[in-house]
């Protein structure tokens, strides 16, 4: 019978083929590691609904509801795959419930806070990054994939690739356009990427760097 580690390796491979982003897989891998630490490399047939519930209770008393929901979704996804692939006759995670999360009022920046952020920018790079985020509403994972040639300055638009590699067109304003052009004009490298590291050797900025 398949063990937990083997199930995870096969599951992870399938999700890569399906187009799961590296960030999503990294988050799932973290949850798998916690699951492995708790249960060890046991046979998947030894998992029961009660055992998984006990794990969630004992390991999640410090978690906020949103974090617990994420943990539950990761576990359900793994065991649904195991069941769908025919490795288990029943899915022990199917009945796991996510905690209720109250609706929150969205947080936003005031006009004054926006201006304070603008004043805090110390370079064309920082200004271009800030204005691009503020103007387009792009996710950071979408921004790091962009290349210079993706920017359409005539229409002030760009095609970004989001979750599941879905394409969408976003637009930026004149202020953003000016800072992007200034930033790109100041660069003396031949890198294709839109945003690069300031230190040499220059290369595409990572999410952590941004």
Describe this entry's structure for a reader.
50% of the residues lie in helices and 6% in strands. With 210 residues, it is mostly helical. Helix 1 (4-18) packs antiparallel against helix 2 and helix 6 packs antiparallel against helix 8 (174-186). The longest helix has 20 residues, at 65-84. It starts with a helix and ends in a 24-residue tail after the last helix. The mean pLDDT is 91.
- Helix tally equals 8
How many E strands?
Answer: 3
CATH topology of the largest domain: DNA polymerase, domain 1
The value of Rg in angstroms is 22 Å
**What is the 3D form?**
elongated
Helix content: 40-55%
Number of domains: 2
- Secondary-structure-derived class: mainly alpha
CATH architecture descriptor name of the largest domain? Orthogonal Bundle
Order of helices and strands: HHHHHHHEEEH
CATH class of the largest domain: Mainly Alpha
Query: How much of the sequence is in beta strands?
Result: 5-15%
| Termini Cα gap | 45 Å
Overall pLDDT level: 91
- Summarize the main sheet: 3 strands, antiparallel
